[in-house]
Structure formats: structure tokens, C-alpha cells
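Entry:
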Amino acid sequence: MLWRSATAALASFFVLANSSLTVAQKASDESGSPSATTTISGEQLPPPPPKFGGVIKEDALKSTPWWPPRVVPPKEAPNILLIMTDDAGFGVPSTFGGVIPTPTMDQIAESGLRYNRIMSTALCSPTRAALITGRNHHSVGFGVIAEQATGFPGYDSIIGTDNATIGRILRDNGYATSWFGKNHNTPTYQASQAGPFTQWPTGMGFDYFYGFVGGDANQWGPNLFRNTTQIYPWIGHEGSLKMDRSDPNAEIWPVTGEEPTWNLITAMADDAIDWMTRIHQTDPNQPIFLHYVPGASHAPHHPKKEWVDKIHAMHLFDDGYEKLRERIFANQKKLGIIPKDLELTPWPKDILKPWDELTEKEKKLFIRQVEVFAAYVAYNDHEIGRVIQAFKDLGKLDNTVVIYINGDNGTSAEGGPEGTFNEVAFFNDVTPSVDVQMKYYEAWGTEFAYNHMSAGWSWAFDTPFDWFKQNASRLGGVNQNMVVSWPKGIKDTGSLREQFMHVIDVTPTLLEITGIPAPEVVDGIKQKPIEGTSFAYTFDAKNAKAPSRHKTQYFEMMGQWALYHDGWLLSTRVNRAPWQAFEAANADPLNNQVFQLYNLAENFNQSEDIAAKHPDKVKQMRQMFLEEAKKYQVLPLNASVAARVTAQRPSLTAGRNELVYTRPMTGTPQGDAPFLLNTSYTITADITVPEGGAEGMIATSGGRFAGWGFYLLKGKPVFNWNLLNLDWVRWEGTEALKPGRHTVEFDFKYDGLGLGTIKFNNFTGVGKGGTGTLKVDGKVVAEKRMKKTIPIILQWDESFDIGSDTITGVDDNDYTPPFPLTAKFNKLTIKIDRPQLSPQDIQKLEAGMKKAALGVQ
């Protein structure tokens, strides 16, 4: 009886299902059918749910089903590939006169348009925030990079919910959206697996993310994520190089073995191609928006060896950086992308040594540095070409808008005049000598170097302009270039456009060409207006010489500023090179400046300052800048650089002096890791050693280029401080731990006051030494003084790990990651004892900070 009832019920279900299916089939092209689609007005996102259009009776057989239509973009909306490279100035690509071959960019230019006046903000995360929101960087909380965030609206590293990104707008209008590569727009204190993930790409409207979080990454071994989940280890990481440092007196340390087969530059192209293919095969009609932002060519410069060999064989740089600058300048005139009568600004001999004054060793090192950089650029352009080819292979290229922006700012000079094998050293105010750097000659570009080139090359790569990334008042810091192709929409191919534009103009351009309006309300929150101006009008040949529609634009970065208005540019004279980040800051960056004035319509590259001839114009534009600064959250102006890295900001560990961990875990980023710089601390591990002994990582933070590790090596406890890959201070027990339960402790007593900046008013509270004591079960087994400590920051792309070590280790001579702990992990306790300042110390500190205008509350 029961079986018969079940059978009857099942039969009734099939009748009902078939009835519904019949209705659906009849209505497949009508509203309410499963295949129904609709476009939306777009003023409100997500759109309000549609009213049910079917019929509901008591009996389902007499009712009519109705499906809400699927949202799709307007008819013929194009696919979008939005590309932006990293730390690349105007003279880098061959497309704009550079000597580095970028055939992919060349091809896009030939099939589309070149643009020579697209502006950035002079720094990475600010430009990226402006690009994806269509609003000025201070308007969306990114006046500086996330690691320098301060507690003011223009500088808090939070893209507010009233600033929906282009990803969110397109996604809610039916696009498939993705983000590949660098994400430098997540606050440091929201980058851990504790979330929240609202400020990650997937929380900002990009349904798929594959890349890294932060300013840069080791391309041979990044802290890599798919959506919000760490990918480790990487598939296909075969091959292993070894660096032999056994002879400390060797001029060059040899590197042997096979290069890894895996590199992020290729891996992200592979993943992007896989994603777009998956979307196409699932729904060939769905337009895609692919935001492609590789880490190249930001330091560390990590190309594959085959590309280094190709560039080396071309001998592009043998005659030095001044000659390189002259060749690029001549190429640019031949291409017609700069005026024929333009003159170069003079070489800055006061800060960059002329090539003919270098030693032969310096020349050899510097050529190696730039060849690796050039290889990185060429390699990256090649992989971008593979992504574009995938659009063609899928039959999508004809209706795909490709926007390829060269650089999020000018070329970086953060390696300083001599370059560096370890960029982390630069951010700790340490400059390795040429002799030390030569030891890494063979390692340059491999996983054993976090390398950056001499600023002399950077100056040359910003030709026809001068200065660098960070310098917002000079075109070398902000004047990028761009190519755009769209076979279906751009017919005036191979042409040049010279209208003034800014990266905030990209989002409104994409909205215009897709026919999608900027929303007024998103998630119930009224949106700020888009601040950029569409440049879609330039796609039409009749507007090739039309006046720019972007009339006014401010620039500001760490106290250096400028204002563009209708062809005129007011600039503050550069008062700090990027490598002078630790100097005392300008106390009044709004007014304590030397002002320069340029007519860009007559002087393309700021080579002729006419401020003395037009004092009234200078006065007028100074007032205009102040008005713009008030409008876009630029105030308060702050000229400090390194001091903002050390300033207090939110963290999941902030205010906690004791942290307890009872299970192994990996992947906690530095922004939420225990901060053990400039303080006393005690790390206590409760472990149980099995029969036969144990080894492995107890806890570590940072990696090969700066960090600490607490581990068992052949059973002996070790605490090891890696001081910027220049020195290692080790405490090691004399005996292996016997089987059983043990307490292993490392106690460090810091000498300094623990607060302040590197240099001002002779107040030095950071980077001081201290005494470390290693104990086993309460007994001292090693004690040693450290003369100095790391002052500012550990390696930012390496995490805080417990129970194993991800990516790179702190000492290649001791172990190879992941080096799992084979003892039973019971508990880890970290106690932090920050120095207590006297009232006199605090008064001195506050006075010094106020005088240096550090902006720390």
C-alpha cells in the first residue's frame, strides 16, 4: 500500500513537471520563460525584484509559472579587457619610443589608437582605486598606499560603499567580471582570512579573483589567492635553484640548478584564459569584463631566464642611461608622439652620477639590473598577448574593447641611485653597497633576489619627462601612455590622440560605450558622482584633434602637488627624491613650496618654467588647487613618507599585548600579524617531542628578505632573525630536545623607546638593539645581543605562520619550506612589552612630530 502511494505521488509529480515544461517551451522567447532576459535602467543596483507575472491558483496544474528574467547588458555591449602594468614610465614600451620590445602593445596601437596624455596619481594603489571607481584617489580613501593609511577620510584606504566600482556596476548589469594580478586596494587590516572580504575584489563586484594582495609579490613564489583562498603550494613548481653563499668573500655567489617552471606572470595569463574560456563555453553570449593588472614591472623584477637571455643578446644598455635617454627621445620624435622641436631637461648630476663617472664594477652591475627589468617588461607583454589571442580564438575580439595602460605611475626609483638586491632593505632605510650587490649578480631576477634597478635607468625610462614614481608634480611621475583598440567601434586605426585624460576617465568611458548608466543607488546607498570624463568621443576620427573635455585635474602625493587647468600646469618643485623617504618632512606642504608654471600646449615636458612671467596665474592656480583639495578630501596635506608606514592604524592585533594560539595556522598577513619591531617581547612554545626527536617550524613571520623564525633544527631549538638578507642573528640550544613535553621560550629585551621616526630632532626610537635569551624548560641555553634590529617593516608578501613555513624561509642554510613541525604543537604564547615612555619622552616625541608635520594623532 505504501509503495502504491509513493508510485502515485511520483506519477503526479511527472505530470506536473511535464505540464510546466510544456508551458516553458511555449514561452521560451516571452517574458517569464526560463530563457527570458532583460536589461535594466541601472539607476538602482541591484535592481528591485520584478513583480511575479504568472498565475497562482490553489492547484499547481491550473497555475502558470513565471521566471524573473535574467539581467543582461544592452544589446551589442562589448567585452572589455582592461590592462594596466606596474611602475612603468612613458619611455618604457617600444610603442612609445622605448627600446624594450612590446609587440603586443604595438599591435594594439596599430589596430587602434595611441594616447600620450593619460595621467596617473604617481603611486600604485591610489591610481588603481581611481581607475576602478572613476573618482579621484583621495575621494575613495587612497591618498597614499594602504600601508601608509592614516585616520583621515582621504587617506584611510577604504573605498566607501558610496563609490561602487566598475566591476560592481558591470556585474549587476549582466557582465561576467574578473580581476587578475595585483590587488593593492584592500586595507592591511582586512587582508587576513578573518575578513571581512568586502574590500577584496570579490567584495567589490569582481566575481572571480586570481592574484596577490599588496604592493608587490615574489613572482617565483607569491602569496597567491583564488578569490579569498590562499593557493599553496603552486602546481607545476618543478625545478630548483640553489645559491651558494659558502664563501663570504666571493665576489659573486654562484647559482646552480634548474629554474622553476612556474612563474606568476605566465600562471595568471593561463588562469585568465581558462576563466574566459569557461565563461564562453557556459554562455557564449555573456559579455565579459577582465581586469588584468600584473605585478610587472614593479620590483622584484622576476622574469624567466629565456627573456633575460633574449634582452642580453640585444645589447640595449651597454652605453649607459644617458645614451639610452637620448635614443628613446629620438625614437619618440620619429614616431611623432612628441613635438619635433622638444628639448630634453638636463641630466640631474647632483643626484644621479653620470655614466662615465661610474666604476667598471658599477657599470656591470647596473647593466645586469636593467637587462632583468627589460626582460620582465618584454615577458609580461608577451603573456598579455596570449590573453588577447584567447579573445580572438573564441571569436570575441571584434567586439572587445582592449585598453592597455602602460604603468600605474612613472618608473620607480625606489632602488635608489645604486639599485638594490632587496627592495625590503630600501623600505628600512638600508642601502647595500655595490660590492654586496655584486654577490647577487647571478641571482638577479631569480627567487634569491628582491631586486630593483638603479634610479638612473628609471630617469631614462620616463623620457621625455623627468623624475619618477611618487613625484606628483612632475610628468615623469604621472604622465603615462595608453593604447586602445575596438575593431567594431574604432575605425581611425594607427592614429594618435593628444587630449588630456586621467585614469578616472576610464570608468565613465566604459559606461558610455556599454550603454550602462552610473547608478544613483547601490545596496540602498546613494552614490557619489563619477568624477572622471568619458574619452569615448576620441574614438571618432572627426574628434581626433578635438579639445580635451577633461579641463581640470589636481595631483597630490605625500606633500608634492600640482594642478592642471585647460592646458596650464602649476607644479611644486621636487624637494625629495623617492629614496629620501626618511628625511624630515616639509612642515607646510601647502605653502612652503617653490612654485613652477608650464603651458603644456607649448611645452610638452615641463622643460620651460614660466612662473616668473605669470605671477597672477600662479596665484590663481594655487587658490584653485586649494578649492580642489577641499572638494576631494585631499586635506590635511602631509609630506611624510616612511613615518606613515610606522604610524598606528587598525589591526586585529592592535592593543593586544598577549596572543595565544592553540593550533597550527598559516597565511596571516603582516597587517594582522604580531608586530615585534621596536619592542620587547617573549615567545613561548609548549610542544611535545615524540620518540626519535623532532624538527620543524614552531612560528615564523616574514621570509627570505626580512623576518624571524623559531624552530627546531636537528632537534635543537633555534631563534633566527634575518636582517634584510644581509645578516642573520641566531640563538641555538646546545642539545636536541629529548622526547616529552617541553617549554621553549625566546625573550627579547629592546633597548629603544620604540616610537618615533628614523630621523628627526635626533630622536631615534626605532631599529635599536637588544638582548635575546633562549630558554628550554626555564633554563637559559643561549643569550646574545643584537646591535640593531629591523626598524620599519618585515617582508610584506610573506605571512605569519605557525607549525610550518609558507613560501620562503628566513634562512636557506638551515631549512627549506614548508618545514613542518614534527613535534606535537600544544600552545604558542606571544607577550609584547612595548616601551613605556616618560612624560618627557612623550612631550619630545609630540613636539618633534608636530614640527615634522607627520600627521600622527
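The first helix runs from residue 2 to 26.
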